[in-house]
């Protein structure tokens, strides 16, 4: 069993900051990519940011320059530092990870989500 557990969501005023954390636990042999997605009410889930095990990162266009993703491989943890938050950043943020990779591919897991609400 593998679990991804997010924390750090909450209510913040526009212009403020939040830091999300996601810890992967359980029967983990290797982790490839770790990342964050978000889903606002009535909208499709979208990529926020992801980081590969070689440190390369990718960001969604709407968060570039404001959000920073990082990971601690020793702790199987990925972080998302969110600065200059805007009301349109309001969404449920989900942690995602591709792990236990083999020649057959990787297994994908999702966390339960954490709510981020930005007030104007």
Question: What can you see in these coordinates?
Answer:
- With 120 residues, the protein is mainly beta.
- The chain has no helices and eleven strands.
- It has strands at 2-7, 10-13, 18-26, 31-39, 46-51, 57-59, 67-72, 77-82, 91-102, 105-110, 114-119.
- The strands form two sheets. Strands 2, 4, 5, 6, 9, 10 and 11 form a seven-stranded mixed beta sheet that branches. Strands 1-3-8-7 form a four-stranded antiparallel beta sheet, with no helix packed on it.
- Strand 4 and strand 5 form a beta hairpin.
- It is elongated, with a radius of gyration of 14 Å.
- The N and C termini lie far apart (40 Å).
Structural class: mainly beta
Instruction: Say how many strands there are.
Output: 11
Order of helices and strands: EEEEEEEEEEE
Morphology: elongated
Q: Give the N-to-C terminal Cα separation.
A: 40 Å
Low-confidence stretches: none
Mean pLDDT: 96
What percentage of amino acids are in beta strands?
A: over 45%
Largest pleated sheet:
7 strands, mixed
User: Helix tally?
Assistant: 0
Tell me the helix content.
Answer: under 10%
Rg over CA atoms, rounded to whole Å, is 14 Å
Notable traits:
single chain; four-stranded antiparallel β-sheet
Describe the protein's topology.
Elements: E1 2-7, E2 10-13, E3 18-26, E4 31-39, E5 46-51, E6 57-59, E7 67-72, E8 77-82, E9 91-102, E10 105-110, E11 114-119
Parallel strand pairs: 2-11
Antiparallel strand pairs: 1-3, 3-8, 4-5, 4-9, 5-6, 7-8, 9-10, 9-11
Short description:
The protein is mostly beta strands and 120 residues long. It is built from no helices and 11 strands.
